[in-house]
Structures are given as structure tokens and as C-alpha cells.
Amino acid sequence: MALEQKKILEKKNKISFPSKLFVNGKYIESKKQRCFENISPIDGSLINNVFFSTIEDIDLAVSSARLSFEKGYWSQLAPSQRKKVLLKFAELIERDRLELSLLDTIDMGKTINDTYNSDLLLSVDNIQWYAEIIDKLYDDISPSSKKNLGLITKEPIGVVAAIVPWNYPLWMAVWKIAPALITGNSVILKPAEQSPMSAIKIGQLLSEAGLPDGVFSVLPGDGTTGKSLCLHNDIDCVAFTGSDEVGRLVLQYSGQSNMKRVQLECGGKSPNIIFADYKDLDKAAQSSAYAIFGNQGQVCSAGSRLIIQKEIQNDFLKKICEISKDMQPADPFNLNSFAGAIVSHEQLIKIYKYVQDGIKEGAEIEKGGKIVMKETGGYYFEPTIFKKVNNKMKIAQEEIFGPVLTTLNFSTFSEAMNIANDTKYGLASAVWTSDIDKAISASRKLRAGTVYVNNYEEDVDTTIPLGGYKKSGIGRDNGYHSLDNYLQIKSTWIKIKN
User: Fold this and answer.
1) Which helix (H) or strand (E) holds 314?
2) What pTM value is reported for the model?
3) Which of 230, 300, 399, 457 is the catalytic position?
4) Is 265 a catalytic residue?
5) Model pLDDT, residue 1
């Protein structure tokens, strides 16, 4: 369904803002009646006051999740039955697509064009894909002797806490809850405090789709809520997407509690390598600009380190600068806007400070570098391009999570690989070349969970797993590989009488 500007404004004026916890199939207030202010980055205004989940609320959600799991209301349901519920859930998200898109835009500041035409469609696809795969997975029989029968079966792990970020509020939540639910687990979703509303809304949709009460809960809150979930001794798995600093804490909390399984996706500082032999540098420039300026640069796999072969460096940089003119932030509700707001004032200032650090370290701003649209009351930062960057600089090593591109150069293949791998992260990477041997060699040498060849995150779908090497995390989202996060493998060894 094509989106019209008139429909956006009509729906925006009628929309209600969810603010309660969702536990045991219904919306409830926090037991301690605590709330936090939910601010829209579009204009700095107060959206609503959202109830804050404390340990008492967490205990209630966990006990409901545990009871539903042990009783088998969902966990023991046939895969074909779980499939029907998830497919219905996807239908309901499609039905409420505009409302959910607006909630994410208002909460996070990204454009309605992105939320409606990308995030929500991809969320529906993700749910449908997991729903369709579940009754097509088989258990195994070991190749044992005739005297024994070895059964290798997979069971749901139990109660899963999904802690998700603010940059793709609904889509990132779906990445966790779709595979966790379809494998029979009970799930507690903790959305980022900056963008809780679409997560709260889908609690109702899952109930409407037929999910039994207690199987799914939503607990808005801040880092203390997340910490309490990670330390809870009756949670079997934590699936987390966020910073590497918090990811390390999640690992510690697992060790301090019941050694629950942990799946982490912890960001990146991804290299995007342009070789001089690539034939269509205009295409490479367009894709490279989108790879860092799309979603206001608030993307864990953003191509934030552009590594260009020296003989084309100046020309390629000019192309990027020219393209960035059409990627300026603007009104997120306007269908013609490429970029919207930065998620919060705190994040805006963080980006600005990184830019100042880059200047102090000796890098030069080729374009951008300023906070803009201050008159709106919102938080906007223009696309920023640094040149004369040394890979040891802070702006080349730390994840800025904003529309800031650092450009480096190289002469030889080995130099390019050394620069690319010289980072604590290893989430994504890209190489642009017309030489197939060079492309294959680069893909083998790059220490990253994903290597894009002659594209950057173009047309990637649910079938492709996402995750990283090094401090980018543990485990994978997407694809059938993500199911491993939420399943236990059981071996049953049967002795057969002669």
C-alpha cells in the first residue's frame, strides 16, 4: 500500500501513545507507579510518561513466563500450531503498519519513509520466514551400532529476555522475538527507553494473534531494568543488541547469576574498501554514502571507515561529498526527507564531541560537522566527512553511531587488509573490486561476520545471519543459525535388547 502525505497527518493526529507494561496477556501499571519521560527527538517535546519496570514487575513477568513454559501452553504446542499464530501476528503488523511506523518515527526520529517502507516490511518478512521454517526442521538420529539408538533432539531453552536497541525499534525486537517464540520459548522484551512504544503495542497484537497469556511480556525501563533481567536466576537466555560496554556487563551478569546463555550483537566500526579497479565508482560512491548516512548513521553495521585506494582518493571523496548534499536531515514526517533526527540530545552531543575530538587529533572536515535545525527544538546533525584520518585516531576506532564518515587511504592490497582489520570490532565489511580473485582473497582475510562484495548491505534479507567477530559479539541474528540461540540440544541414548 502506497503511503500518502495526507494519510500520515490524519493518522498522526489520532494516534494514541502506549505507556504501560504488558504482562500475562494484559496491560498493567508498574507496581511502584514509577514513570519516565518519553521525549521525541523530532522537536524535543514530551510524548508521554511511560511506566518504569522495577524488580517486582520483573518477578511477575518472569513467573508468568515460567508458568506458561512449564505448563506447555506454547512450548509443547505443535510447530504447525505455533506457525499459525506467528503468521497471524505478521498479518496484524501489516494491518497496523502505519500506526507502528508513526510510533517508531515519533519515538526515535527516523523518517516515516524508512519506518513504513523498510522497517515494517522487513519485520513482517522476518516473522513470516521464521513461521514458515519451524515445521520444516528435523531432529537427528546418530550413526550408532544396531545395539543402540541415539536420538538428538532440540528443545526450547525456556524463558528468554530480549534486550533491544533504539535505532530500529520494532525491527530489532522482531529479530529476537520471532526465532525465540517460534522455537517454543516464553519471551520478555525490554525495549530501549528512548523508543518503547511499538514494543508495548505488539503485546496486544500477539495476544490477538492467539499467543497464550504469559508467553510474552514487555517491560519498559532503563539500564537498571536490563541489569535485573540479566541477573535474574529464572531467566535461561539473554539476547542483547547494543554497545560493547554493556555487552561485557551482560556477560558478567550471566556469570554472577545462573550462567544463562548469552547472545550479543555489540556494534562495529566497519571498513568499506574501494579498489581503483572497480568499474562503476559512481555506484560505489552512492552505496558508500548511504552506508553511513542512512538512518542518520545510527546503524551498528554502518560503513563508517571508508578506505580508498590512493590513486582515486580525491575523485571518490568529491563524489561522496556531492551525494551527501541530498542526504541532509529534514522533517521526518515528510515523505521526501532522506534523514531525520538523532535519537536523543545525549546522543547528539556525543556525536558533536567526537567531531571535535577528530579535529583536535588532526583530521580535517571535508564537509559538515555541525548541529543543524536548532529552531525545531529537535536533535539534528548534518552528514559529516573527515579526510586526513589516521587509523589510530579516536574517530577511526570508536563507534560514533552518527552520520560521521572517516576516510583513509591505502596503496597495496595487504595495506588495505591491515587497516580494515585494525579494530576491536568485526561486524561488517565491504570490498569493491572488478577482480574476482581479489574479492575472494579479501573476503577470506577480513575479520568480520559479513563481507559485502560490490555492494553495502543491499537487498540483504532474513536468510542471511548477522553477527560479528571480536568485540562485535557472540552468536547470530537472522537465518536458521539464530535458532541455535534459543534451543537446547538433548541426546537420548537408548540400549536395544538383542
Assistant:
1) helix 313-324
2) 0.96
3) 300
4) yes
5) 66
